[in-house]
Amino acid sequence: MNFKFLMLPVLALAFAGSSMAQTQGAIDSKTLNEIRSSFNADASTQALQNAITNSKSIRELALNRSKIGQTDHFFKYRVDVKGITNQKSSGRCWMFTSMNTIRPNVIKDLNLSSFDFSHNYNYFWDLFEKSNLFLENIIATADKDMGDREVVQYFKSPVDDGGVWNSFFNVAKKYGVVPTEIMPETAISNNTGQLNRILKEKLRGEAYKIRQLAAKKGNSKKVQNAKVEVLKDVYRILALSLGQPPVDFTWRYKDADGKVSEAKKYTPLEFMNLVAPDFAKDEMVMIMNDPTREYYKVYEIKNYRNLTEGVNWTYLNLPNDDIKTFAMASIKNNQAMYASCDVGKQHNRKAGVMDINTYDYASLFGVKFDMDKKARVLTRQSGSSHAMTLIGVDVDENEVPVKWEFENSWGTSSGHNGYITFTDEWFSEYMFRVVINKKYLNEKAIKALDSKPIQLPVWDYMF
């Protein structure tokens, strides 16, 4: 029997039925004609179409000429900083920024012309500890389905370069820090993509096997032994790519007056206590502007850390005005702050300026763009994407802030000699987190810090 001829009429009937009953929500010819007719191809529209279709950059076409040159790079209050760092092709902005908040004090206290920490040293331990945490998370969720949302989230990114202030806090408290010359950057630490891909493949494959082993009762010792074997391989990959981190080292320096210090031997933790004694006091707290949640509440993201025994990403949610007040107090006292923002929004990289009207896409396309910060966060249109050091604020005659300054970690060729100036309006819309000493907070904020953190899931939209 020829089934081909029998099926054709059936298919024809199916398509006929489909055309007779319009699917709910589909674009019919009437609606399409209405949409088409809304595009009025007059002379000005034709000119815009010619410009946009022949341009390599919509962004450049939208550059608001009225804003160029309107923002200077002078500040009434500015932290005394020296030198611009460069994270190159890596996602270690949080690490560079954290160290850049400490660096000015080291330069001042030791009377140095310049100084930098080894980011490579802490990067080694960050990836090593993240690998262990990933495997522990896989072991802890071995009884859950592979499609479980938490399990999916862990396998999605076993390790990466990303992190926040608590990531540096965790690794520095456990492993300390060393000067940059003790464990300098390598070609791999400056371009981390390949290393991350190799680690992810290794960790996913081994975690899948460990997960199967952990699902069976009575295998806890075998599971931990298997995990240690994986970590040996991870350590080897890291040591071959980044170099092996020192257990101790000998260091001396030449100060700004040309005097050479006595050579001394340190462990990385001893060196941390030497150059950043306040770090051990746990006086720094993360404050954040998250308009989707209640203010003056503490929130904690589940398992957002790099050490199994480390602290999670925890923050006090505050209104922008309070954050600005506290940040100004810190800057006036010459204390730089870790900060993170949505750096890609309205950023004129050439000028080193961020203003909410830097790029006028509304005028270019003749359409409205009117989401507020809350809507942008909830729809994933905006979120913190980069960490930088907050070092400056300029004010009007009433001491009201008008613009702020970041010290970036993209080298001196980026922005305004490595720095970025942003308006106070931009701060309100696109700044998210600031890490600040508790002493600059008011009584209400300090009291709120004592409340029990509200835990957020590992897949939370804000992170």
UniProtKB/TrEMBL annotation:
One function term, GO molecular function aspect: cysteine-type aminopeptidase activity
Pfam assignment, any one: Peptidase_C1_2
Record keywords, A-Z: Aminopeptidase, Hydrolase, Protease, Signal, Thiol protease
Cited InterPro entries: Papain-like_cys_pep_sf (IPR038765), Pept_cys_AS (IPR000169), Pept_his_AS (IPR025660), Peptidase_C1B (IPR004134)
Organism domain of life: Bacteria
Signal peptide: 1-21
Biological processes annotated in GO: homocysteine catabolic process; proteolysis; response to toxic substance
Record: active site: C93, H386, N408
Entry's Gene Ontology cellular component terms: cytoplasm
PANTHER family: BLEOMYCIN HYDROLASE
Family stated for the protein in its record: Belongs to the peptidase C1 family.
UniProt name for this protein: Aminopeptidase
Species annotation: Ancylomarina subtilis
